[in-house]
Structure formats: C-alpha cells, structure tokens
C-alpha cells in the first residue's frame, strides 16, 4: 500500500522539518494540503509541487486520493481533526503537543480505541540517530541509571518576536496549552519516557515571572520512574543566557547531551571521556515519518502511540496545574 498524505495545517513546521520528508520516503507521497487561508494553501501547494489544496479540512479528509492525515495545526484543534480523521478510517500523524492537556489526550486515547484506527504522535526525537545513541549509552555504558537532570533556558522574546503570527498562538494558552513550555517540553519529557519507561509519579510548579504574555515562563518538575530513576527538569524563558543541557548519571558513568543543540554527546566512564558527534538532519521528522509509514503499512510497530503521548501530556499537566491551585502530584493509577 502506498501512503498518500494530506496535511491539515500546512504552516511553518511543514516547510522544512516535516513536509519535504513525505516525498523522500519509500511508499510515501504528499498529495494534498489544507490551510484555512485559501491563498496560502494554494501558494504552499504550488511551491511544493502538491497537486491538490483545500481551505476546508473535512474536504481533505474526505478526498479518496488521501489515505493518511498529518495534523500540523495549533494544539487547540488537534483533538477535533484527529477525531474526524479516525472516524473516516484514515491513520493519523499528529503534531506535538498532541492535545491541549491530559484530559483531551485521554479522550483521544478512547477515540482511537473506539475506531480501532492508527495514530502516531510526532515525538520525533526518540527515533533520531543522536538520541538512539543516548539510549544505547544509558542501557550499556553507565551501569544502573540513577538520576537525570535537564536545564533549558532561553532569553526573553523580543517585542517583534512576540508579535509575529507564528509566535502569537504559541504564547496563547487557549491555543497552545501553555506557552513555550508546551511547545518544547513534549520532546524532552518524551525522551525521558523513551529512555526510562513507565512513570510512577510526577509533580511540579510553574509561574509567570516576567509577565510578558499570558502563559507561564518558568517551570520546574520532577518524575519518579518505575525503575527508580529520578528526573528533575527546569525550564526558564526569561533569563540572561540560553542553556540546553541534560545529564544522566548512573552507578558507573555519566552522559551529557543537548536536546535541541545537537552538540556532541559526552560519555564519562571508567574508560575516560568520550565524545560522539552527529550531523544535523535536513528534515528532523524524516526518521519518525519513515517509521510511521512502515506502521501504517503494517510492516512495523507504532513508533510513538497515542497512549505514550498521553503519558507525556499527563506529566506536563502535573508540572503546570499547581499554578491553578490544583493537586500538585500525578500518581499513576494503581501506584498511589
């Protein structure tokens, strides 16, 4: 079976990160795109050589030439469009964050089960060679993993950046779920889940310190995994210097790497210090899209399931909902 994709929300993320990859993978082609702005949909189609364009998502979903749907709209419409595609019997590749919050994610889990459809969440870093190498080092070169620490800091956005259309929806919690944290943290938290497995408990705190926009701009959170690894993460989008570092320390060694910076992975062990450099990918989503194509064709397992994506959303909720006066921890069912 050839996978013939239709994109709902052919915006910035699809220009380089994902869109071109659909035509660079065997048994995959991009045949239709949709944006609510018809002129922009037509422009995208013409620039990328796509034969069909729509300004109505349901028309794209109903197109008989489209048999798989990539949803790349802001998160506030993910549940709606994913439900429509599953209802039409078409598999879904869904951008992160998969929904606005954990409640919507849980609803999507139920819908996927009800329709018996296929859905892959675009937590694409877990299948990139860089992070597969990190996983290999954790499993075989640092003994028993004990603790993981992540620090991600950014300087405040300029006034010009905050006013750009591509940033405004990200800073609006009603559209994005929670600002820059919700835009970036799904990748980081999913990697921890990919590295360490099932989550026993998570908690955190979040605050809007600088008051530059409606969303929180500083978050701190902890996760205890069932394998006893303890994770601590801190995100700040209002500080003097940028920082992107994650350290994982085990009983016999330490790994240091970046999530977004692609700096060489560092391994410190009884053999000394080793570095593992990797080339940047032209299209960062291509490895996961390739895996999703194989899954949709029945040739491989789901590279990132809706249930796995739901776990990430629950963790994010547990980090930020205390700000709203809600319970501060999120124990998993049966593990209280």
From TrEMBL:
Residues 131-255 form the GFO/IDH/MocA-like oxidoreductase domain. Coiled coil: none annotated. GO terms for molecular function: nucleotide binding. It comes from the Bacteria. Pfam families: GFO_IDH_MocA (PF01408), GFO_IDH_MocA_C3 (PF22725). It comes from Parapedobacter indicus. This is Predicted dehydrogenase. Residues 3-123 form the Gfo/Idh/MocA-like oxidoreductase N-terminal domain.
């Amino acid at each position: 079976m050839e996978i013939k994709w239709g994109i709902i929300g052919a915006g910035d993320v699809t220009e380089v990160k994902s869109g071109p990859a659909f035509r660079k993978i065997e048994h995959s082609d991009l045949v239709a795109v949709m944006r609510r702005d018809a002129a922009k949909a037509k422009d995208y189609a013409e620039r990328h050589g796509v034969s069909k364009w729509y300004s109505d998502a349901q028309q794209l979903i109903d197109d008989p030439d489209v048999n798989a749907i990539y949803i790349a709209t802001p998160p506030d419409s993910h549940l709606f469009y994913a439900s429509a595609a599953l209802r039409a019997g078409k598999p879904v590749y869904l951008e992160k964050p998969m929904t606005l919050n954990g409640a919507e994610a849980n609803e999507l889990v139920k819908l996927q089960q009800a329709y018996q459809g296929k859905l892959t969440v675009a937590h694409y870093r877990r299948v990139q060679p860089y992070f597969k190498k990190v996983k290999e080092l954790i499993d075989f070169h640092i003994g028993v993993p004990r603790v993981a620490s992540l620090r991600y800091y950014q300087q405040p956005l300029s006034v010009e950046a905050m006013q750009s259309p591509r940033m405004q929806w990200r800073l609006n919690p009603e559209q994005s779920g929670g600002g820059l944290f919700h835009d970036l943290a799904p990748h980081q938290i999913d990697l921890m889940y990919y590295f360490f497995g099932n989550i026993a408990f998570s908690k955190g705190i979040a605050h809007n310190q600088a008051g530059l926009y409606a969303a929180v701009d500083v978050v701190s959170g902890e996760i205890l995994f069932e394998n006893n690894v303890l994770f601590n993460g801190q995100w700040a989008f209002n500080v003097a210097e940028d920082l992107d570092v994650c350290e994982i320390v085990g009983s016999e060694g330490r790994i240091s790497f970046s999530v977004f910076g692609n700096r060489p992975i560092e391994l410190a062990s009884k053999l000394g210090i080793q570095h593992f450099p990797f080339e940047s990918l032209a299209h960062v989503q291509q490895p996961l899209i390739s895996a999703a194509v194989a899954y949709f064709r029945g040739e491989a397992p789901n590279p990132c399931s809706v249930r796995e994506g739901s776990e990430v959303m629950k963790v994010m909720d547990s980090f930020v909902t205390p700000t709203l006066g809600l319970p501060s921890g999120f124990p998993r069912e049966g593990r209280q």
